[in-house]
């Protein structure tokens, strides 16, 4: 059972928009920065969003992040088949003194 | 090019030890904190532990699942981070990734707030 809760799967058609939620508590999301990671099949994870809503260089603006209270959301617009991947949220947990990831969400582009 | 390359994985019996290496290039290794993250078969990402740079004390934090069994260290002169894994269990079977961490300091404590570079991983299989 992960400290951060994500839906196991989401799906949408090409060109559509999808959101992935990440729910935590005051000891993690509520008081720390959230980052998001994309893991394409058979590859290493890659940083997608940091500081709740900042995209690293090279990440398209189709990807966005937001945070409100103890929850965070990843948004992806203009879905492409190449976006099919596992997506993870992550943050520091001050009570655990450790980094925590969500359980991961598998995105299927129908 | 900024790069992390893990090595040292393999098949090991339960109760034995293994040391993984993470060789860095393309950046000033000593300036950065490093973490190890693993992905077990059929599971999600799990953070293993974190080592601050010497400028921030060179101290470590570990996940409860590995605390007391795993140790992270670094050799800044050779730009290598290590993960020493002792008393291995079958549930330690996973792909192990090293990451470069950006840290955030607040209230006298510094901790990772995102992992901006990941290696390709090395596979550890614990089985008799």
The Rg value of chain A, from CA coordinates, equals 13 Å
Largest interface: A-B, 28 and 26 residues
Distance between the termini of chain A: 28 Å
Shape of chain A: globular
Structural class of chain A: mainly beta
Level of helix content of chain B? Answer: under 10%
Biggest beta sheet attributes of chain A: 6 strands, mixed
Low-confidence stretches of chain A: none
Strand content of chain B: over 45%
DSSP strand count of chain B: 11
Main sheet properties of chain B: 7 strands, mixed
Shape of chain B: globular
Quick tags:
heterodimer; A: 110 residues; mainly beta; six-stranded mixed β-sheet; three-stranded antiparallel β-sheet; 45% strand; globular; B: 128 residues; seven-stranded mixed β-sheet; four-stranded antiparallel β-sheet; 57% strand
Quick synopsis:
The complex is a heterodimer of chains A (about 110) and B (about 130). With about 110 residues, chain A is mostly beta strands.
């Amino acid at each position: 059972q992960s400290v951060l809760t994500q839906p196991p799967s989401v799906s949408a058609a090409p060109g559509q928009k999808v959101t992935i939620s990440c729910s935590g508590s005051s000891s993690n999301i509520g008081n720390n920065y959230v980052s998001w990671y994309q893991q394409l099949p058979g590859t290493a994870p890659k940083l997608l969003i940091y500081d709740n809503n900042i995209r690293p260089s090279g990440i398209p603006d189709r990807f966005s992040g937001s945070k409100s209270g103890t929850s965070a959301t990843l948004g992806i617009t203009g879905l492409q088949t190449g976006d099919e991947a596992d997506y993870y949220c992550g943050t520091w947990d001050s009570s655990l003194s450790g980094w925590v990831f969500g359980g991961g969400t598998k995105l299927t582009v129908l | 090019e900024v790069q992390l390359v893990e090595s040292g994985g393999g098949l090991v019996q339960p109760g034995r030890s293994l040391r993984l290496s993470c060789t860095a290039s393309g950046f000033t290794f000593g300036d950065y904190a490093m973490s190890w993250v693993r992905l077990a078969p059929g599971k999600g990402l799990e953070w293993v532990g974190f080592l601050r740079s010497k400028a921030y004390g060179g101290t470590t934090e570990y996940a409860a699942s590995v605390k007391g069994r795993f140790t992270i260290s670094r050799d800044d002169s050779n730009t290598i981070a290590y993960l020493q894994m002792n008393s291995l269990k079958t549930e330690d079977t996973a792909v192990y990734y090293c990451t470069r961490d950006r840290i955030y300091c607040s209230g006298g404590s510094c901790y990772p707030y995102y992992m901006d570079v990941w290696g390709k991983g090395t596979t550890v299989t614990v089985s008799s």
